[in-house]
Amino acid sequence: MTSEKRTLIAPLDILSLGFECLHCRATYFVPIDKLDRSLPRTCQNCQESILTDAPVTNSSWSDLQALTQFIALFKLLRTRPFGSAVRFEIREEPL
Question: What is the distance between the alpha carbons of residues 72 and 89, in angstroms, rounded to a whole number?
Answer without folding.
Answer: 21
